[in-house]
Amino acid sequence: MKKILILLFLLPSFLYSQDGTIDLGFNNPVHLNNPIYNGFSSLGSSGGAEIYTTKILRNGKIAVYGDFNVYQGIPTNKLAILNPDGSLDTSFNVGLGPDYVDQYYGSSSMICEQPDGKLIVVGSFTTFNGVSKKNIVRLNLDGTIDTSFNVGTSSNGYITCVKIQSDGKILCGGEFTQFNGQPYASMVRLNTNGTIDNSFNIGLGFKNIINSFTENGIIKTIDIQNDNKIIVGGKFLKFNNFIKINLVRLNSNGTIDNSFNIGIGGGNNTTNGTNNGQIYRVIYDNSLNKIYITGIINNFNGNPSYNLLRLNIDGTIDTTFNFTSVIGYNGLNSNGYIYDMNLQSNGKILLGGEGINLNNCTGSYCSRIVQVNQDGTIDTTFDCKLVGTYTRVYSIDSINDSIIVSGQFTSVNFEPIYKGSIVKVLQNGLTDLSFNPNLGTDPYTPSFASSISLNDGNIIANPTYSINYVYPNGDTNGIYNERITAGLIKINSDGSIHQNDYANFLTSNLYSYYLTKDNASNLISSNPFTKKIGENGLINNSFASTASIIAPYNVNIFVCDHALQNDGKIIIGGNFRYSSPGNGSYRQRLMRVNSNGTLDTSFNIGKGINGISVAGTEGYSVNTIALVPNNKIVLGGVFTDYNDNIISNIVRLDSNGTFDPTFNSGTAFNSDVYKIIYQQDIEKLIVIGKFTSYNSSNSNYIIRLNNDGTIDPTFTSPFAIGSTNSRVVNMVIQPDNKYIISGKIDGVEFLKRLNSNGTIDTSFANSTYTAVQNSFGDYDLVRNISLLPNNKILISGNFNHINSTRRDGIAVLNNSPFLSTDTFNKNSLHNIYIYPNPVTNEFEFNSLIEEVSIYSLEGRFIKKFKDYETKFNINELKEGVYILKIKNQKSFTHLKLIKN
């Protein structure tokens, strides 16, 4: 029988969490509705959405308007409000919303907020939530229609932009000839109740010429100066029968302001009488008393331009603003389209559009957002690239340091940062993780090659987008929490990136299949070469390279495992040949290196692990290495021969590499072995793999062996024989000798906990792990398992959901802290004490002790002393507090030890 000693001071955080359930404190927030994709969609899948207007409201929320019907898996039709963190504000509900939206009939200025928080929304719709509302509507704070706003029959054409004056009156621009039955050519001003303000008189209004025919002008943008004069931009050639190409300034009563001297105005050269240019956005800069205009503008008043200009208040070009850096599609000498711009509080200007490629960037994956300094030069500290089949930025809004970018795109900065047409970026162009983050790795192919926990609770992990995947710009980087990784990355215990060491790991560029730690705070990393790296991400260059490893028989190189001996030497196993410098001999699938990385020639494996790999198969390989007493070494994997000794997937070696015939495995395993762990406290070997028998005895996928290789009859596999690809692939052992295992049986991926006798622990949550597609194999959804210092469970692999909760490739599971102790009479050891305590290197007891086991404060087994030793050396342990389990005959006790 077992008892569990609970560490009471650690207990409260675990009181309400079942073991094996997700720890929601790791990498929070998560997407409550758990879509595979982030952001908006018009198809119920990644991409497809077009957002035309985003507006940051006074309360920090964001109004979003465009062609979409889903946000993060939640139905929402064409108009939504997001909370500052990117979650959907469910208190705002427009029901069916507008019946129609279209980019051609839109702009970045289709939403305005009144001082009372109500929203004016314009567009090309005929109904709103099933109610007849033509092209303009006012909404209450909850998204319902404000019926006190009455525009009559409204406009007979679409409305593209709206602006509220300081007196509350509403300016509307678009392409129409009438408003509520009265003649208004493309612009009108309304009173606060929706009626027409007849004091605003634009005469004949705005006209355009297309193929020598006069048509309605189109208003795309309106801004208001401090003196209440109104700047209007769009696509037109005349205002009230005066030549005004695409730009005009009006007095507050609607008449032309003749002090605004723009000459022939702005746009492209006309062709066959057609106006080819237009202005998408005007912004009045109150601090400089200047005016920014942007759009399709190749010339302005006869002067060449590049789609962005700054004008003096009198309409002349401000020559101190020299913008000439943005060119068009694929690096060609033609301008892209700038659909929107945003003037930030620091005076810099953000530009977004289509075909905006920066600094002669070539290819279709180039920058669609540019930041411009106050003198017109490009701000090279800002780097934000949006990617998609059709990539456009229609709207940019900012407040303080918050920049919201929207349009039509799927991902950001060439990485699989799926945003669904809306993203919040920082001042340097990186995505802002406070808004709708993709936490973990890529959700479409979420995969971690390796992960390991450190003593301080931090994590080293290797996220990867997909093995051998190359990004459109040629990069082969991975991704974690929306930041580029080049192999390994250091993660804080809460799931955030450890920023202090981020650059070091990025520079080291180490991809690792397998990680371990030594006692000097080094990480041992393998794939395909074994290297030492500090916990800070810096490579230990004093450790010799193993780059002479080559592939056997033209098969890919794999270092599958390595084991660190007490003397600092490292045993390396996998599917490789190591070429010994100078003598032309090989180390076949197994080698040992000295603590400095040089080959240990005293480790004599002869011909080593043999067997010819067959193309299309897993090949012969050493998959796992376990160090056992008397300096012996147990290997597991896929092999049939060791130095001419017939074996079957398991072998034990002496310390010098020679075959140990005393290991009684008989006919051994009938299929692959994936992992072997030696349980020091019970002196057993636990083995997992693809096998269904051992030495002709049934044992499906997991078995426990005695130290001599015979079967431990006290442990029985809980699994029946499954389909061909059934297997147990990974495992860790808890301090109470329970086993956390992962694998796949009959097509079902699982993570389970077994009791020490092999029965399934039903107190451990039974979860389902799913992924869109697999990067490593159909049995690697949970590829890595390790225990954190607080005894919680770190898992990583190829999953993007656990049950119905979004987790992209990495998660922490709840697990109770404990120490397992046998049922002994503890009272007889109550007079035992330790000295010295605290201790630096060596401690003793005041009487003889049969056995001492050392555990971390959280209950993790570390080390055991036996055979009535009198002095106990712990020089290799780090400073900290440890728990000793002391056994003498049939009595025991626990004591606390402090290591200085």
3D structure, described in words:
With 900 residues, this protein is mainly beta. Among the domains are: 45-315, Methylamine Dehydrogenase, Chain H; 824-899, Immunoglobulin-like. It is built from one helix and 80 strands. A four-stranded antiparallel beta sheet has the order 19-18-22-23, with no helix packed on it. Strands 49, 50, 51 and 52 form a four-stranded antiparallel beta sheet that branches. The chain is elongated. The two termini are 36 Å apart. 48% of the residues are buried.
Rg over CA atoms, rounded to whole Å, is: 35 Å
Q: Quote the distance from N terminus to C terminus.
A: 36 Å
Number of strands: 80
CATH classification, class level of the domain at 45-315: Mainly Beta
How large a portion of the residues is in β-strands, by DSSP E?
35-45%
Strand-pairing-aware structural class: mainly beta
Number of discrete helical segments: 1
CATH topology of the domain at 45-315: Methylamine Dehydrogenase, Chain H
Largest β-sheet summary: 4 strands, antiparallel
Question: Strand order, biggest sheet?
Answer: 19-18-22-23
- Any idea what the shape is? elongated
- Poorly predicted regions: 1-16, 329-333, 359-365, 466-475, 548-556, 612-618, 820-827
The averaged pLDDT comes out at 82
DSSP helix fraction: under 10%
Report the CATH architecture of the domain at 45-315.
7 Propeller
Organism: Flavobacterium microcysteis
Protein name: T9SS type A sorting domain-containing protein
InterPro entries: Delta_60_rpt, Quino_amine_DH_bsu, Secre_tail
Domain Secretion system C-terminal sorting: 834-898
